[in-house]
């Protein structure tokens, strides 16, 4: 199991990164990406903290921890700049907090995230076909999420991604211990989004390909 969208106490999660990794391992995860919420105010702190954890990889020999970041509620005209800064600071991958139905994310965020070079567009809400095509062309993964509220548009995202051939990824967007999903539940969430049961391994391979590319 691979999950590249989780949160620790470095932003609004409940667990230390170490405990998050441990709990994920117990549930059968092989790779966990920790992508705490950030904007210009805390970007350096979040990334440097996670990079410090990565230096002690021998301690976490049972699970691979990938340090990332989730650019969240950044004004759309600044998204590309903040993505570039995150990479410069050492984030191995960048998630952007998309136009979820559950929050008042600025319109145009999806588009600027894709143009700006995000790796994953999280919970992109009612993403347009134009942006789904752009995501395909730019290699941006569209997220099918387990997160309550954000998952309201999973069906729309899945249907549109299949139509235009955009790649998808499954993530939990975990903030607390109960948010981490064992693989059996993850597969059911993917099916609930209107995808076939056979699509879950494809999404996991997309995640693995991203990890291999950035590590």
Descriptive account of the structure:
There is one protein chain. The two termini are 17 Å apart. The longest helix has 16 residues, at 199-214. It is built from 8 helices and 8 strands, in the order E-H-E-E-H-E-H-E-H-E-H-E-H-E-H-H. Strands 1, 2, 3, 4, 5, 6, 7 and 8 form an 8-stranded parallel beta sheet that branches. By secondary structure, it is of the alpha/beta class. The model has no long low-confidence stretch (mean pLDDT 96). The protein has one domain (2-214): TIM Barrel, CATH 3.20.20.140.
- Main β sheet profile: 8 strands, parallel
Low-confidence stretches: none
Please state the structural category.
alpha/beta
Shape, per Cα inertia axes: globular
Question: What percentage of the residues does DSSP assign to strands (E)?
Answer: 15-25%
Number of helices: 8
């Amino acid at each position: 199991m691979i999950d590249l969208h989780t949160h620790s106490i470095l932003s609004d999660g409940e667990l230390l990164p170490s405990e998050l990794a441990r709990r994920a391992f117990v549930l059968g995860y092989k790779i966990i990406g920790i992508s705490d919420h950030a904007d210009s105010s805390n970007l350096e702190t979040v990334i440097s903290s996670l990079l410090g954890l990565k230096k002690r990889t021998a301690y976490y020999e049972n699970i691979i921890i990938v340090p990332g970041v989730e650019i969240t509620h950044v004004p759309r005209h600044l998204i590309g700049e903040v993505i570039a800064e995150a990479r410069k600071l050492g984030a191995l991958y960048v998630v952007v907090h998309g136009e979820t139905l559950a929050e008042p994310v600025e319109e145009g965020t999806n588009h600027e995230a894709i143009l700006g070079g995000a790796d994953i567009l999280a919970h992109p809400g009612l993403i347009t076909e134009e942006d789904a095509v752009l995501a395909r062309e730019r290699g941006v993964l569209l997220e099918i999420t387990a997160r309550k509220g954000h998952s309201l548009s999973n069906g729309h995202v899945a249907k549109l991604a299949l139509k235009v051939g955009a790649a998808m990824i499954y993530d939990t967007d975990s903030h607390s211990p109960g948010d981490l999903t064992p693989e059996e539940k993850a597969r059911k969430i993917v099916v609930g989004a209107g995808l076939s049961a056979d699509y879950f391994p494809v999404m996991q391979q997309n995640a693995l390909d991203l990890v291999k590319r950035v590590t």
